[in-house]
Design brief:
Keywords: Membrane, Transmembrane, Transmembrane helix. This is DUF6535 domain-containing protein. 77% of the residues lie in helices and 0% in strands. It is mostly helical and 303 residues long. It has two domains: 146 residues; 95 residues, no CATH class. α1 runs antiparallel to α3, α1 packs parallel to α4 and α1 packs parallel to α5.
Length: 303
């Protein structure tokens, strides 16, 4: 007996096509907005990373020679030895061979300065590389998502690819890029302090004070959104600290504490909190009424 194929329902196919079209419209709007924001961020990061790497390379060119013996010093020492030998020969005296100098060792400040600056350059170049890859991945995502015209196939491709973004934590990869750039800047300032120590102590103290202020402000911007969920400031480390605090909360078994997986989920939960919801609704409505310029725009409130 031959297996019979189920009869296709044209009305059902049409209804499904409409449903998939709605899904595609929403998914396309969301994905394009997300990928465009990533692409714009990556373009800005690439420009800054390129300029910063070029500037940092100029500093490294100045500091790198301090890690190796200066050839000019060896030349001066050799000329001085020849001069002493000639003088001894002219006077008929015995020339005493000078005591050999100890092997060259760079100073601690030179080692610290070059270490910090080479780490900074590595972070900056890694940031540029990953930013370039993210731009390529974003274009590849849009290309794959629009390969097929059929609504049902496009919808499944959108869902499949977006699930891949979440499964492989591409959002976190994108968040790592500015973190690398921030760490590169901090290492640059730390190397600048070490570079100035043997040159001028007051200037090194000024640079150290600036570095301490930057570190303090950066730490505050990292921690503030953990305490105040409506705080507009954050850094790439904020999400990491939130995950750590969430893990500690689970260990302490505090049921009343926020246990949302991400800061965005915690913010959404806090916005729906009934304790202060009516106050927020009141402020939103007052702002809406004040911002309306035409009386016809007030009709929805009167209906």
């Amino acid at each position: 007996m031959k297996a019979t194929r189920p009869l296709e329902d044209p009305n059902g196919e049409a209804a499904a096509a409409k449903l998939w079209s709605v899904y595609i419209s929403e998914a396309e709007r969301y994905d394009k907005s997300l990928l465009e924001s990533w692409t714009n961020d990556m373009e800005g990061i690439l420009i800054f990373a390129g300029l910063f790497s070029a500037t940092l390379t100029a500093f490294i060119v100045e500091s790198y020679p301090t890690l190796v013996p200066d050839p000019a010093d060896a030349t001066v020492q050799l000329l001085a030895q020849i001069s002493q030998q000639l003088a001894a020969a002219a006077n008929g005296s015995t020339f005493q061979m000078p005591v050999p100098e100890p092997p060259f060792n760079p100073s601690a400040a030179s080692l610290a300065c070059n270490t910090f600056w080479f780490i900074s350059l590595g972070f900056s170049l890694s940031c540029a590389l990953i930013a370039t890859l993210v731009e390529q991945w974003a274009r590849d995502f849009l290309h794959k998502a629009n390969m097929r015209p059929a609504p049902s196939i496009r919808a499944r491709i959108f869902s499949f690819l977006y699930h891949g973004l979440k499964e492989f934590s591409m959002h976190r990869v994108v968040d790592i890029i500015p973190l690398l750039l921030h760490m590169s800047l901090l290492f640059f300032f730390a190397g600048l302090v070490a570079f100035l120590i043997p040159i001028n102590i007051p200037m090194a103290a000024v640079a150290a004070f600036i570095l301490a202020c930057i570190t303090l402000v950066y730490s505050a911007l990292t921690i503030l959104p953990l305490r105040y969920l409506n705080c507009p400031y954050r850094t790439p480390l904020s999400e990491t600290f939130w995950s750590v605090s969430r893990g500690i909360t689970k260990l302490l078994r505090r049921p009343r504490a926020h246990t949302e997986r991400t800061l965005v989920e915690a913010m959404s939960h806090a916005a729906r909190d009934p304790e202060h919801r009516y106050e927020r609704d009141y402020r939103a409505l007052v702002w809406t009424v004040k911002s309306l310029a035409d009386e016809t725009e007030l009709e929805p409130f009167a209906e």
